[in-house]
Specification:
The protein is mostly helical and 172 residues long. Helices cover 76% and strands 0% of the residues. The two termini are 27 Å apart.
């Protein structure tokens, strides 16, 4: 019987998830500017489907540090959006395209989380929560755009080389 993850892959994805968490913490002083979106997309492109394990490690570390709230429910699905879009577009090589995708995700972050608040408190809760967060979504979108524009290609080269070194089938 073949295992879903080898010990080597499990170790790699645990370190990638922890690195994702550490990178976000390192940038926490900047208002809603984070490397998570870029790295989630790069994991999808460079490591394939199994790298969702790294995203799960990241989300678990967020829950352990900050506790659970309505935001935590969003984290159970929100990172699937850039991951799935990146998997679908993994052959695209334009940094501007990746920057636009990353920026759009940042702009829509609040809207993508709003359904949780709708379930918890109705339309008024969802719309007021989303509207209150629009200034942060603007910063999120701009930060994502510029991080991806500058870092997507060099990070893709580095992570693709790491994936090849590990002999991963999803390597781009």
């Amino acid at each position: 019987m073949k295992r879903f993850l080898s010990v080597r892959e499990l170790t790699l994805y645990a370190f990638l998830g922890a690195g994702l968490f550490a990178a976000k913490l390192a940038m926490a002083q900047l208002p809603n500017i984070e490397p998570v979106t870029l790295l989630v997309m790069l994991f999808a492109v460079c490591f394939g489907w199994k790298s969702l394990c790294a995203v799960a490690v990241y989300a678990a570390l967020e829950f352990f540090l900050w506790g659970a709230g309505l935001w935590a429910v969003c984290y159970l699905y929100i990172w699937l959006v850039p991951f799935l879009l990146a998997r679908a577009a993994r052959r695209v090589d334009s940094p501007l395209w990746w920057a636009a995708l990353s920026g759009a995700f940042g702009l829509l972050f609040g809207a993508l989380c709003a359904p949780v608040y709708w379930v918890a408190g109705g339309w008024a809760a969802a719309l007021s929560w989303w509207a209150a967060g629009i200034p942060m979504d603007l910063l999120h979108g701009a930060g994502n755009f510029f991080l991806a524009l500058v870092l997507f290609r060099p990070m893709r080269r580095w992570l693709s080389a790491l994936a090849r070194r590990y002999g991963l089938p999803g390597a781009a």
